[in-house]
Amino acid sequence: MKRFASLLLCAALFVALFSACAGGSGTTTTTAAPSDDPSWIGTTTAVSETITVTDHAGHTVEVPKNIERIAVCDIYPLASVLTVFFNSAEKLVAIPDASMTAAKNGLLGELYPDILNVETKCVSGSINTEELTKLAPDVVFYSASDESIGDTLRNAGFTAVALSVNKWDYACIETLNQWITLLSTMFPENDKAAAVKAYSDEAYAYVQQRVSVLSEDERARIFVMFQYSDTNLMTSGEKFFGQWWCDAIGAVNVAQELPNDNAAPVNLEQVYAWNPGAILITNFTKAQPADILNSTIGSDDWSGIDAVKDGRVYKMPLGMYRSYTPGADTPVTLYWLAKTVYPALFEDLDVTAKAKEYYHAVFGVELTDAQVESIFAPVSDAGNVILN
What we know:
globular, 14 strands, disordered N terminus, 15% strand, alpha/beta, single chain
């Protein structure tokens, strides 16, 4: 019996050694005692599994299969995307200040109040790796456009995953689809890639088909006001989200001649020279349409511009996040923008119904009419944001 027990022990050790050396998506180790040992109380199995993903910076990353704690560095819309992706904020342990400001002043904080208690200081501005370590994140997301942050995170021992906002030429629909695809790979039990792609692609195709009938003279000429104060006026040239939004609804971005990657500084004199027929204000500024229509900011006088004369100044929606960027709101924002700029062409489009349908079908979120209306009437404080 002793010899038989010894053989059993050797066999168990061989299985453990083989499992540890086999590799694959994870490793399994097992320890066992002979069945004739009265002190043995059972078998202990320790399992550590990972999933291999390729992030948007081209890194091959081994992430835990069961991710419970997530930190987000400098991808401001991602905290909201993750929250609706999980239909919960419980996995988030750190998000940037800019994300928190939007959550506090938008629908996200109302639907998911737990997000308002998430830590922000350690991932706002420069990354405080010491404080971030205390939060013990299983994975940390950062922007693929800043590899220095990725290096800092990896050198500090974090599992870092890069997501990109501009790899797809600032195309909001494609960027959202790519984000959800990567998240669905990391969290297969929450896979929403097909559903999000179906709805977002449908919205884009619908709008593009409608606006294809517009002649060159009928295309709206839009000035995108990214940021505005008494000392600062920023817009979108051809290499920023404003260009994509204009293209998506068949409009003309009056500032498309500007080659700046990301936001471009301009002055009011230049805006007068462009003389846009509509002005689109983002939620990265506290400015509201009334401020432009009544020229209440600084000493600027907007009264001579066609968009102001015709009262065609609009504030972009703020749902789960500032809708100028890619995010969970992108398909709904596209419907809203198309109808806002071309009301006659989209007279039969019920944007409220589209919003409620989209959030229910894809994310399981039930919105009231009042909540949808709040998306399209954002408060000024959402624009109180300092960009890193």
